[in-house]
Amino acid sequence: MAAGHAAAVNKCIGADGRITYTDGPCGGAVRAERIETPPPLSRAEQAAAMWRSERLVGEARALDARRAREQELRRLQDEELRQQEAMRQRQIEREETEHAARMAAVPMYAAPIYPVYPRYRPPIVVPVPLRPQAPPPAPAQMRPYPFR
To answer: Strand, coil or helix: what is 96?
Structure first.
């Protein structure tokens, strides 16, 4: 392409600080700059640019879709964890209720009571005679007075 096809653009900065771009002369601007623009693209360059842009847009859509799937998967996992936690909490409450019901049915003094056995004392042994004994001898009779 020839350099003549490139268009020049003027950047005009006004007194109030506003910037204006124009292809004509700046009228009454405080400051003006000339900006060179590149020449227009050929058909092959335009086609290549379109192909790159479509590829980038496709990659961006695929990335968005993947992120959406991952976010949905995380949401489902979080929901499952919440359900498991709720189920575990209900189980704990049920067990506490059952325990309270069992405790209400048992008297408060229901501690194990062990019998207290008396201390060991040997048995009293009564001797049993093996043969009958003779009666004791009768006391001696007194002799009458005077003694000799």
So the answer is: helix
**Residue environment code for 130-148, b if the CB has 16+ CB neighbours within 10 A, otherwise e:** eeeeeeeeeeeeeeeeeee
How far is it, in rounded angstroms, from Cα 137 to Cα 131?
Answer: 18
How many domains are contained in the chain? 2
| The amino acid at 37 | T
**Interatomic CA distance for residues 19 and 34, integer angstroms:** 13
**Residue 86 covered by a domain:** yes
pLDDT digits (tens, 9 = 90+) for 128-148: 767 777 777 777 776 666 655
Burial class (CB in 10 A: 0-12, 13-18, 19+), 79: exposed
Containing domain of residue 17, as a range? 9-38
Q: Which pLDDT score is estimated for 46? A: 93
